[in-house]
Amino acid sequence: MELRQRALDALCCADPDEKVALATALGTSAARSTLSPHAPQPSQPVPGRPQRPELIHPARVPRRSPAKPEGLAALLHAIAHIEFNAINLALDAAWRFEGMPREFHDDWIRVAAEEAYHFTLLRDHLASLGHAYGDFPAHDGLWMMCEKTAGDVVARMALVPRTLEARGLDATPQIQAKLRQVKTPAALRAVEILDIILRDEVGHVAVGNHWYRWLCEREALDPVAHYGVLVDRYAAPRLYPPFNEEARLRAGFSEEELAWLTAPRP
After folding, report:
1. Taking the model in full, what pTM does it have?
2. Which of 63, 146, 186, 211 is the most exposed, having the fewest neighbouring CB atoms within 10 Å of its CB?
3. CB 135 within 8 A of CB 124
4. Residue 142: pLDDT above 90?
5. What is the mean pLDDT of residues 80-105?
6. Do the beta carbons of residue 130 and residue 74 sit within 8 Å?
7. pLDDT of 121
């Protein structure tokens, strides 16, 4: 039972329920799996995804109010789509990158299993509202950065977990505040689910921070200066305040890195 092959198998799985099951099983048995020094070659498309949801440009994704049942369902669907992509992102890191310690692969397998749990919570709550994953259009921004950084593990750690996924640390409290204003049982249940996701995502971003710094040390790079280089090189999205500084500090960002985020740039 080789870990990277199992990660690739789960990554290539197109059925969401089956992908969740594979990622969860891998998370509980990773320690018993061997680890090849080389990434196996995929025989199916990477990543495996269902035919729905329809993927459209982010600007075309409709904005709806969570105060209405359809708007709440659309919001939950959008977050579920992020978590589905996050399963793939973690599995891809565990499968793709060579020359990394065993702990790197184990960390991303654990993250994939936790992302699968998050997706399940959201999918089940969505079902309680009469909807399923795939019922609303979505965008593919998170996976596009994964593809851009496929050949550069330093960039992947810098720009996916500690940039795009870290944005969730900033956005989640704001989403929860809006949902609390709605006050319906369905909205308050969504707040509870987001509490779980935010708690775990601090740890996921911390994994990205740890391995980014480990790689910078290995390659004699200054982590703050090189981050700016990577943002420009890969055209990463510019992040704007407000930032959840408390959560970011718990996730391993330094004061210097937070200052870089808030500094004015042309």
Report:
1. 0.96
2. 63
3. no
4. no
5. 97
6. no
7. 98
Q: How many CB atoms lie within 10 A of CB 61?
A: 16
Helix (H, G, I), strand (E, B) or coil at 153: helix
State pLDDT tens for residues 185-205.
Answer: 999 999 999 999 999 999 999
**Positive or negative: CA dihedral 48, 52, 55, 58:** negative
Tell me the pLDDT band of 59, cut-offs 50, 70 and 90.
confident
Domains of the chain (ranges; CATH) run: 3-262 (1.20.1260)
Residue 266, pLDDT score: 63
The dihedral region occupied by 47, where left means phi > 0, alpha psi between -120 and 50, and beta the remainder, is: beta
Beta bridge partners of 55: 138
Q: Which residues are paired to 148 by β-bridges?
A: none
- Sequence length of the chain is 266
The 3-class secondary structure across 93-133, one letter per residue, is: HHHHCCCCCHHHHHHHHHHHHHHHHHHHHHHHHHHHCCCCC
Separation of alpha carbons 25 and 110, rounded Å: 10
3-class DSSP string for 168-233:
HHHHHHHHHHHHHHHCCHHHHHHHHHHHHHHHHHHHHHHHHHHHHHHHHHHCCCCHHHHHHHHHHH
d(CA 178, CA 187): 9
